[in-house]
Amino acid sequence: MSRPRSIGRLLKVYWNYVVARRSRCSYPPYRVWVESTSKCNLRCPMCPNKSLDKSQLGMMDPDLFGKIIDQIAPYVHDMNIHHRGESLLHPDLASMIAYATERGIMVKLHTNATLLDEEKSHQLVQSGLNLISFSFDGLDAETYERYRKGASFHDTVRNIRNFLKIKKKLGSSQPFAILEMMDLSEVDRRYSLRDKKEFLSKFDHLPLDRFVVKKPHNFGGNVRLTPSDDPSLRPLTPCTILWHSLVVLWNGEVVPCPQDFFGQMVLGNVQEEKLVDIFNTPELIKLRKNMLRRQVDPCGPCARCDFIRRPTALGIPLQSLRYLRK
Hints:
The chain is an alpha/beta fold and about 325 residues long.
């Protein structure tokens, strides 16, 4: 999507959300999460994946994925091919990405990189993947292995380095590579600027495009970040995600937001309905209306979500603006 069209997309969402305060959208979703799998090989303390029921664990059928791509290719700008699980567990991941990119969709992948061997690295670079972000929390083995239960600090660093070497060897500018780390300053204050520089030196002369430190989120209130973390103590700003995105779970069920980790607000199923129609179901329209009125379900994930209780600009959560710009 060109820059003018991207700006136009921002303005359209802003108009519907802030100015007109519309609950029905006259445009299709711009961004979609398509969950390749909900299974994960790690048991991280700050992720609720380990609490999913067995019935909620599975992998998306490649035929269903193809059906989704055929539906959304005419209008979706970008797609995250991840959600609750580790996407590299899916045996057909690379071919699924290739199918989406061939249809003109920008594809992004978030991974813990523990399963990123040389074969998978070659496949991902050659698939046309546009962006890959490595979730890596901790500048040393002790901290990393505390937050990434079941992973090895040294093995994961090696995997990321090898991926970047392969990207460089193949002469590819894609995927744009981001090393993403949670801001653990509230729970671990040991790290200095020198520690960060020393850690990043492991990737010197390799095509790592960006290093990002992000504030962790609470997955709709399902993770307590710090003892003092209580979203209800901060003012609520209506969430923009309802106006531009949808999430498709591995079994085809559609939920309105990636923070709905346990699928409490199922809007429909792409095996039975078109995604563009689900974007304006009565349930989602009602959810938008209630969000604009700041009347969220006290028993639902929105009431406990920290995403809608973060700093704003012109009435829009800053994190939502970052999502839309990407």
